[in-house]
Write a structure and sequence with these properties.
single chain, Jelly Rolls, six-stranded antiparallel beta sheet, about 10% helix
Length: about 220
């Protein structure tokens, strides 16, 4: 007999319909495949080194080929990037010689929804780099996705020889017909993946670091 004042535990009661609801939910989860993205996005950084002074407008098609191009023949490469979106650019200009200055400037072009924007730094030190880091202006079309085969002006870059340029971008692999976006080269190895210069169609001096490249 329980003591006076003690509580008697009540028997557990099943919640009506609970098992049925669980079974239905599980059935729904197992019966329907989860969402799937056929063209996932990837983010990558490529570093470039200037073998000469740079004063060039960087265009979208150069950036797309620079993100990776496959050699189908010894004289033709095909981009493997379906579309490309620029996230940021960072530049280090080498220290100046005694009595001079080192300057790096990046100009974002005017678009229908964004004015011209200049980002610049100058160093007069013999031990400190001129340095900038910038992203496309808000609402500027240069920050939108760029389709392969387009030649939109992305930015104008001015920097001295031996500058280092880091470009961070987002891209989607292409599954379209390769012949739609090819570029002529000389002496390619068939099947080799190449990363072309950032300024390939202009001064062609900003070559990728530690990656296979071709002119």
């Amino acid at each position: 007999m329980p003591r006076k004042g003690s509580r008697i535990a009540k028997p557990l009661r099943a919640v009506p319909g609970r098992k049925t609801r669980v079974k239905k939910n599980r059935s729904k989860q197992l019966g329907q495949p989860p969402p799937w993205t056929a063209h996932p996005r990837f983010i990558r950084k490529i570093r470039y080194l200037a073998s000469g002074a740079v004063a060039a407008t960087i265009v979208s098609n150069d950036m797309i080929f620079g993100a990776g191009s496959l050699a189908a023949t010894t004289t033709a490469i095909y981009n493997v990037t379906r579309s490309y979106r620029l996230l940021s650019v960072e530049v280090w200009a080498p220290p100046a010689a005694q009595g001079s200055t080192s300057t790096v400037t990046l100009r974002w072009p005017a678009t229908q929804s964004s004015p011209v924007v200049d980002v610049s730094d100058t160093s007069s030190s013999v031990s400190i780099n001129a340095h900038i880091k910038t992203s496309p202006p808000k609402e500027s079309t240069v920050g939108f996705w760029q389709a392969m085969g387009t030649n939109n002006n992305m930015f104008l870059l001015t920097c001295p020889t031996s500058s280092i340029v880091d470009v961070v971008f987002e891209y989607i692999f292409s599954d379209l017909a390769a012949a739609n976006n090819s570029s002529a080269v000389v002496g390619a190895t068939v099947g080799q993946l190449y990363f072309t210069a950032l300024d390939r169609s202009t001064s062609n001096v900003l070559s990728p670091v530690a990656l296979s490249t071709i002119a």
